[in-house]
TrEMBL record:
<keyword id="KW-0949">S-adenosyl-L-methionine</keyword>
<keyword id="KW-0680">Restriction system</keyword>
<dbReference type="InterPro" id="IPR051537">
    <property type="entry name" value="DNA_Adenine_Mtase"/>
</dbReference>
<dbReference type="Pfam" id="PF02384">
    <property type="entry name" value="N6_Mtase"/>
</dbReference>
<dbReference type="GO" id="GO:0008170">
    <property type="term" value="F:N-methyltransferase activity"/>
</dbReference>
<protein>
    <recommendedName>
        <fullName>site-specific DNA-methyltransferase (adenine-specific)</fullName>
        <ecNumber>2.1.1.72</ecNumber>
    </recommendedName>
</protein>
<dbReference type="GO" id="GO:0032259">
    <property type="term" value="P:methylation"/>
</dbReference>
<keyword id="KW-0808">Transferase</keyword>
<feature type="domain" description="DNA methylase adenine-specific">
    <location>
        <begin position="1"/>
        <end position="117"/>
    </location>
</feature>
<dbReference type="GO" id="GO:0009307">
    <property type="term" value="P:DNA restriction-modification system"/>
</dbReference>
<keyword id="KW-0489">Methyltransferase</keyword>
<dbReference type="InterPro" id="IPR029063">
    <property type="entry name" value="SAM-dependent_MTases_sf"/>
</dbReference>
<dbReference type="InterPro" id="IPR003356">
    <property type="entry name" value="DNA_methylase_A-5"/>
</dbReference>
<dbReference type="GO" id="GO:0009007">
    <property type="term" value="F:site-specific DNA-methyltransferase (adenine-specific) activity"/>
</dbReference>
<dbReference type="GO" id="GO:0003677">
    <property type="term" value="F:DNA binding"/>
</dbReference>
């Protein structure tokens, strides 16, 4: 996300790469793969010379279950790419993989080239922190209403049962 993710000259270089080569796959590595040297997310870009780019496959490499990040002493392991390698020759869209037409990343507006390779995963879980505030409020309100309904049910159940004092007096 460093060298090729700027505007101006960077955008023109990206445009040239997309028009002269086939950027067929971008593998997104988890954050921290190169920590402590950089905190910038890392993408592996795969090109071939089969012609201009028509569509780009994205594959999001997840952190292993129970792992929060990578470190210098606990780096990423080759075995963690098993799912990606299995997907590679039999590509289908799934929760980790999606494809986009080149027109979604390469745009021209009044002669100004814009290339955005940072296409979010449309198949992944919604990122809670990036939901619109209105949706967050609506979701919280709905949960609050459910909590109140459950509390009302509990209150009704407690009314029906004899109290603990009455049971002790008997």
């Amino acid at each position: 996300n460093g060298t090729l993710f700027g505007d101006g000259v960077c955008a023109r270089i990206k445009e040239q790469l997309l028009k002269e080569f086939n950027l067929h796959t971008i593998v997104r590595l988890p954050n921290g793969v190169f920590a402590p040297y950089t905190s910038i997310p890392t993408n592996l870009l795969f090109f071939d010379r089969s012609g201009p780019t028509k569509e780009i496959w994205y594959y999001e490499q997840p952190l292993p279950e129970g792992r929060k990040n990578y470190t210098k002493t606990k780096p990423m392991q080759y075995e963690e790419f098993a799912d990606c390698l299995a997907w590679w020759n039999n590509r289908t869209e799934n929760e980790r993989a999606w494809k986009v037409p080149v027109e979604a990343v390469l745009k021209q507006n009044d002669g100004v080239v814009s290339v955005n390779l940072d296409i979010k995963n449309p198949n992944g879980q919604a990122d809670f922190e990036h939901l619109p505030p209105e949706q967050l409020v609506a979701d919280i309100w709905k949960k609050e209403e459910r909590i109140l309904a459950i509390l009302a049910e509990i209150k009704d159940v407690l009314k029906v049962q004899p109290s603990t004092k009455e049971n002790k007096q008997r």
